[in-house]
Amino acid sequence: VWEDCLDFLKTQVGEQSFKTWFEPIKPLHLSDKTLTIQVPSQFFYEYLEEHYVHLLRQCIHKELGPEGKLEYSVIVDSGSVQNQPYMVTLPNNNNQKSNGWNKEVKVNEVSNPFEMPSLDENARYSNLNPNYNFENYIEGDCNRLARSAGIAVAEKPGITSFNPLMIYGGVGLGKTHLVQAIGNKIGSEGKKNFVLYVSSEKFTTQFTDAIKNNNIQSFTNFYLQVDTLIIDDVQFFSGKEKTQEMFFHIFNHLHQNGKQIIMSSDRAPRDLKGLQDRLLSRFKWGLTADLQMPDFETRMAIIMRKMQSDGIYIPDDVVEYLAYSVDTNVRELEGVLISLIAHATLNKTDINLELAKQTLKNIVHDIESEVGIDYIQKSVGEYFQISVDDLKDKTRKKEIVIARQVAMFLCKEYTNHSLKSIGYHFGGRDHSTVIHAVQSVSDMIDIDQKFAHSIDELKKKMRMKQV
Ligand code: ADP
Ligand code: MG
């Protein structure tokens, strides 16, 4: 009977899927109207149920008539820690999915003919870099929630409601550092907890290889034993349907069994294009926390921490200068710092402001070396948290009008543009508007201390920029 079923299934699914999901099945016995098949694992069973239940039903009914039943016998690896959960989840699954389809699941303790774990030697280890820890992960407003959620998760993996924990943020803002710090902390507390860090890219490659080598069984077995799974850069799963499917199943399985899942992504889940909705909705089960670009103070702290750990000294004004100037991301900030040290060592000179400006000019191409209208608009926009478009727009909202006037004022002071040209760059306003703006800002500086302080900060930023 099973042979006939296989013949039928072969015509219905792709060769690869057939090899992966149907060839490993063994028919055990047929009694009355019930066919019992042996599947290699609980995971395997779940996968079949999720993806092939219709086909299986079809062929059983075809072979045994409408009364036909299919029974699964799931091999349980008795040495494995997963033993318990398998036994526990089975009856539930059975009840949930019994809608009219005659099917029973029995768990038989059979010794496992499939070789267990280990994808490759490396995968036995956690892939964690011990240099990423919480001690050297500077805290700031930019990462407070993510960081403390990370610590909570590290203290009680799988137990807090932060499961999954999803960290998102732009490139170089510290995602990998943070998720690895969590993994390292779990490891360091001597918990019996198998932590695995893997980039979604690597996961994808492993999965594709496993399919190619007909090794999907060890792939899934391996992932299902993980206690804390850290998947970095999940945006990479975008558009990879099969990989997402596999990840979805692993995710569910681990989550159901109280295992911790930690993920990172370069954007918020809602902005992740090309990921299946069911996966995205899972991501939102736990906690989603973002990482922002650190503010000036935090950038200072990051630089000083780095100096301390590398045992180098950099004068205060240079630290300030770097913290001011590099406002793209932390990786770039570190990059500038490293080349600055390299320059100083090579040229046997001291690190000073001059050298820092020179270094920055050479390596950060997209930072304009002069204060221009664009730079002022961008800086003022950031400072007041207003978009550059709004600065140029017609909006008459008070905050925007003030920010716009400040930007015009700074353009007058720091560029050689004529009033006419400045007006032109602010949505085609005329020169009298610019004169009025400059006058209002000067007046406000005189009467409003807080405002005067803001202008000072912005001016400082402009001066830092000038080489
Ligand atoms: P991402 O994975 O988001 O691209 P990384 O985690 O690789 O970013 O971080 C880039 C660099 O910046 C790393 O060297 C990291 O150690 C450092 N870094 C990022 N955030 C911080 C922070 N808050 N404190 C200290 N170093 C940080
Ligand atoms: Mg990263």
Automatic annotation (TrEMBL):
Residues 372-441 form the Chromosomal replication initiator DnaA C-terminal domain. It comes from the Bacteria. The keyword Ligase does not apply. ATP binds at residues 172, 174-176. Residues 1-109 are annotated as: Domain I, interacts with DnaA modulators. One of its GO terms (cellular component) is cytoplasm. CDD domains: AAA (cd00009), Bac_DnaA_C (cd06571). Residues 345-467 are annotated as: Domain IV, binds dsDNA. GO terms for molecular function: ATP binding; DNA replication origin binding; lipid binding. One of its GO terms (biological process) is DNA replication initiation. Keywords: ATP-binding, Cytoplasm, DNA replication, DNA-binding, Lipid-binding, Nucleotide-binding. It is found in: Cytoplasm. PROSITE patterns: DNAA. InterPro entries: AAA+_ATPase, Chromosome_initiator_DnaA, Chromosome_initiator_DnaA-like, Chromosome_initiator_DnaA_CS, DnaA_C, DnaA_dom, DnaA_N_dom, DnaA_N_sf. Pfam families: Bac_DnaA (PF00308), Bac_DnaA_C (PF08299), DnaA_N (PF11638). Residues 161-291 form the AAA+ ATPase domain. Plays an essential role in the initiation and regulation of chromosomal replication. ATP-DnaA binds to the origin of replication (oriC) to initiate formation of the DNA replication initiation complex once per cell cycle. Binds the DnaA box (a 9 base pair repeat at the origin) and separates the double-stranded (ds)DNA. Forms a right-handed helical filament on oriC DNA; dsDNA binds to the exterior of the filament while single-stranded (ss)DNA is stabiized in the filament's interior. Oligomerizes as a right-handed, spiral filament on DNA at oriC. Domain I is involved in oligomerization and binding regulators, domain II is flexibile and of varying length in different bacteria, domain III forms the AAA+ region, while domain IV binds dsDNA. Belongs to the DnaA family. PANTHER family: CHROMOSOMAL REPLICATION INITIATOR PROTEIN DNAA. HAMAP family: DnaA_bact. This is Chromosomal replication initiator protein DnaA. It comes from Roseivirga pacifica.
